[in-house]
Amino acid sequence: MTPSGPPPGxxxxxxxxxxxxxxxxxxxxxxxxxxxxxxxxxxxVNPGKQPLFTADERVGIIRExxxxxxxVEVDTFDGLLVEYARRRRAxxxxxxxxxxxxxxxxxQMALMNRHLEPTLETVFMMPAEQYTYLSxxxxxxxxxxxxxxxxxxxxxxxxxxxxKQGMRA
Length: 169
Ligand code: PNS
Hints:
Elements: E1 11-16, H1 23-35, E2 38-44, H2 55-65, E3 72-77, H3 81-87, E4 92-96, H4 100-116, E5 121-125, H5 136-144, H6 155-168
Parallel strand pairs: 1-2, 1-4, 2-3, 4-5
The structure holds 4'-phosphopantetheine (PNS).
4'-phosphopantetheine binds at residues 15-17, 44, 80-81, 109, 112-113.
């Protein structure tokens, strides 16, 4: 009998809200795509929150951004991340660490996830320096107040935000 292990090629899951995807996220995905055979961007479906973009819209945008990267996949998930990772037979969870302020929350999550699934490692990656101050929350705030977000998010994200704004006006 052959032992049942993960499929060939290590899969890293990069989970998050991605509301919206920023260039900081893109930076992490590209670094991750160099390290792992496959990267799965997992968009959290959180019915409790009022997101700017629906989960399907976020998936569509992210797929478009990475359409030239055959080893980058995009999906949605709900419920426990470790359950989803188990189902997808992932080897690691990848999270971006921008500053020390991220550390405590990320450390708590990583250790809780390890408690729930000891075989699943969390790997932290640092984005390029110019993205260390970037967050989806700030992007929404700045854009909503008329500030420029060019260069901070992929062009398709900016276009989609503009469309949303038009629809809400
Ligand atoms: O982009 P975010 O909002 O910082 O991502 C947070 C995310 C999606 C990684 C986290 O909220 C999560 O994993 N949610 C799924 C539910 C879960 O597993 N919670 C326990 C985490 S220890």
